[in-house]
């Protein structure tokens, strides 16, 4: 990461002890619903939100990637990284810092249908990943057309119908996994958001076939009450053409 404010290094990824702050209570104003007051109170009292502001990170989600990488150590200088569903850019910032993409050593190519502010060392594509042209475009931006790491934090806006929301996120995860199997170098890594209950059987079978190790990870920065979970697949065995 080039932004000095982002701090960095794998020694600073997790927030624990010594991070206590005063609790801010939020009253329900006339125009504020109970749920938005609860959201605001949680934001104001969340140590990850405070730390991300302090460090110049775009999202509290950045800490999820930092924590997972601190434990499994898969982001390294010089790697080519793809970040699917990247807005507002927290994961891309962490990836750019880790692979040292600013000096041109590593590479980070990010995609989202939402636009977001440029990040040094990150090549941003504003497009829906499910667009038929997206995969070729992503590949065309990578050195050698291949990646070492594929990240996906993609999540479609929830509609509040649990089954529909679950199906939509799993559809995105399956599309991300299929792309990872196409674009990764042998030995590559795939990290993807899934939901509680873990990865669907079909996707899990596919990942176990393609990668040496597949594990589910719930980093401390992922809220306990959230059903969010990540699947981390390491040691890509190589695609047909490799
Ligand atoms: C949880 S946010 C990602 C946060 C990001 N990792 C960070 O640290 O800033 C999920 C993102 O996925 C994006 N997304 C969902 N479906 C997508 C799709 N089909 N194509 C591209 N982006 C998508 C959303 O627009 C949203 O910005």
Automatic annotation (TrEMBL):
According to the UniProt entry, its GO molecular function terms are: rRNA (uridine-2'-O-)-methyltransferase activity
Query: Where is the stretch described as Disordered?
Result: 1-35
Residues bound to S-adenosyl-L-methionine are 89, 91, 112, 128, 153
Q: Which reaction does it catalyse?
A: uridine(2552) in 23S rRNA + S-adenosyl-L-methionine = 2'-O-methyluridine(2552) in 23S rRNA + S-adenosyl-L-homocysteine + H(+)
Q: Which residues form the Ribosomal RNA methyltransferase FtsJ domain?
A: 58-236
**Which compartments does it reside in?**
Cytoplasm
Query: Does the keyword section mention Protein transport?
Result: no
EC nos: 2.1.1.166
Gly residues bias spans = 1-11
The principal location of this protein is: cytoplasm
Q: Which Gene Ontology cellular-component terms appear in the entry? A: cytoplasm
Q: Where is the active site?
A: 193 (proton acceptor)
| Class of enzymatic activity (EC top level) | transferase
Chain intervals with Low complexity compositional bias: 12-22
Q: What residue range is the signal peptide?
A: none
Q: Which UniProt keywords apply?
A: Cytoplasm, Methyltransferase, rRNA processing, S-adenosyl-L-methionine, Transferase
**Annotated PANTHER family:** RIBOSOMAL RNA METHYLTRANSFERASE, RRNA METHYLTRANSFERASE 2, MITOCHONDRIAL
Similarity field: Belongs to the class I-like SAM-binding methyltransferase superfamily. RNA methyltransferase RlmE family.
Instruction: Name the job this protein performs.
Output: Specifically methylates the uridine in position 2552 of 23S rRNA at the 2'-O position of the ribose in the fully assembled 50S ribosomal subunit.
Q: How is this protein named in the record?
A: Ribosomal RNA large subunit methyltransferase E
Task: Identify the species of origin.
Answer: Hyphomicrobium denitrificans (strain ATCC 51888 / DSM 1869 / NCIMB 11706 / TK 0415)
Q: State the gene name recorded for this protein.
A: rlmE
